[in-house]
Amino acid sequence: MDRIRIVGGTQLHGSIPISGAKNAALPLMIASLLTPETLVLENVPRLSDVRMLKRILGNHGVDVTVAGKRAGESTEDGEVVRLNAADIVDTVAPYELVSQMRASFWVVAPLLGRMRQAKVSLPGGCAIGTRPVDLLLMALERLGASIEIDAGYVIAKAPDGLKGAEIDFPKVTVGGTHTALMAAVLAKGKTVIRNAAREPEVSDLAECLVKMGAKITGIGTSTLEIEGVEGLHGATHRVLPDRIEAGTYAFAAAMAGGDVTLEGIQPIHLQAALDKLVQSGTEVIATNTGIRIRRNGTPIKPVDVTTEAFPGFPTDLQAQFMALMTRADGTAHITETIFENRFMHVQELARFGAKIRLDGDMAIVEGTGSLKGAPVMATDLRASVSLVIAALAAEGETMINRVYHLDRGFEGLESKLSRCGAKIDRIRG
Ligand code: EPZ
């Protein structure tokens, strides 16, 4: 298994191109099941989760091809992926595939909408909490599907097609909103989704569906209205930049010190995190092409953070912000409200000498003057990258094990950081 070695203590200087967002690319790829015509997605990040989803869609009969690089196209652009679901050969998503990636459960919605049936394995547990799918199933039932759970599989049927309905989510769910949207676009009549997730990745999916011929209004708000159509057609859509990747490098630059420009990011997608960064004493400057993050020797001020649905502070940046706060000049309180068990990074950060105490859903981080490199290991994607951030600022060498978690969500992590002067390399094997 590959490992990553980091020798910390170097400031970061330079620019980092931000990749397409993993969490937008995945539902967009799944939306290809809604049409017999080709969906072309540009700027798709080269990540193991994307490769896995290509396999899963291939299993349903989707023909997935990746276009070669065209003259003038930068190598930093993501892939151009063409997905064609002219013939859906299988409406079953088996345990072996779904258990490896939770988002693949969302195929249930387009399969049900287009094929009127789907049998999809329950996604199962996860290192960050129990993560049920009850609200996704509630949405499908509201749209007229019958749902049965048998031997670990959800069997969803709508022999006469789905019918528009009112869906009121009791709590904000990104996956629930993706599912409801993809099911509603081909349902007969009007659907209203209330308390919809407003994450930019949800809007990106909705905008792509509109290009495919769907009728959706209220995009970007918490009430989405969908007028069902008979069928969707092909389209070309560019995946939006990854706000979580950008936030991660912003925190890394703040922690290690230096001056880094994050290219291609839309600051509005990251406002809550950037506001916290400014409060911590870091300079954040909007440029024509992205944002510049600068901290030169000034102390890191402690800042309290509570995770919330968009536009609040994202749970996917909680571990990284905690890493930053381990070097703060005082005590910070970090409260996780989205997932009940997303503190697995605490014990690993402690290996660097961080002082963190847990009290229910709150982590109390007592900043220390310096961290020391250590061998570490992590249990999920964002937790792993919090260790990278800590290692960049720690004295001496850190060895990060289980880097397959990083490969799920961070394209070109080592090359992006090393072009800014970080001492980071991958040990294969
Ligand atoms: C998406 O997960 C993201 N995944 C997650 O990113 C992200 O952390 C999360 O949204 C929150 O922003 C992808 O986009 C692929 P939810 P999702 O449904 O859709 C509860 C990463 O690191 N809930 O918004 O699964 C749930 O348990 C990943 O890239 C129910 O109770 O998250 C959680 O407490 C990790 N019943 C809350 O809602 C349900 O049926 C929000 O979850 C569904 C969810």
Describe this structure in words.
The chain is an alpha/beta fold and 429 residues long. The protein has two domains: 3-16 and 242-427, UDP-n-acetylglucosamine1-carboxyvinyl-transferase, Chain (Alpha-beta prism); 24-238, Enolpyruvate transferase domain (UDP-n-acetylglucosamine1-carboxyvinyl-transferase, Chain), CATH 3.65.10. The chain is built from 14 helices and 24 strands. The strands form six sheets. A four-stranded mixed sheet has the order 22-23-1-24. A four-stranded mixed sheet has the order 2-15-17-16, with helices on one face. Strands 4-5-3-14 form a four-stranded mixed sheet, with helices on one face. Strand 8 (146-150) and strand 9 form a beta hairpin. Helix 1 (22-31) runs parallel beside helix 7 (200-211) and helix 10 (318-325) packs parallel to helix 12 (381-393). The site of ligand EPZ has 23 residues, from helix 1, helix 5, helix 6 and helix 12.
How would the blueprint of this fold be written?
Elements: E1 3-7, E2 12-17, H1 22-31, E3 38-44, H2 48-60, E4 63-67, E5 79-84, E6 92-93, H3 95-98, H4 108-115, E7 117-121, H5 134-142, E8 146-150, E9 153-157, E10 166-168, H6 174-184, E11 190-194, H7 200-211, E12 215-217, E13 223-227, E14 235-238, H8 243-256, E15 258-263, H9 271-279, E16 283-286, E17 290-295, E18 305-306, H10 318-325, E19 331-335, H11 345-350, E20 355-359, E21 362-366, E22 375-377, H12 381-393, E23 397-401, H13 404-409, H14 413-418, E24 423-427
Parallel strand pairs: 2-15, 3-14, 6-7, 10-11, 18-19, 22-23
Antiparallel strand pairs: 1-23, 1-24, 3-5, 4-5, 7-9, 8-9, 11-13, 12-13, 15-17, 16-17, 19-21, 20-21
Helix pairs in contact: 1-2, 1-7, 4-6, 5-6, 6-7, 8-10, 8-12, 10-12
Bound molecules: ligand EPZ.
Ligand EPZ binds at residues 23, 26, 102-103, 129, 131-136, 171, 173-176, 315-316, 338-339, 381-382, 409.
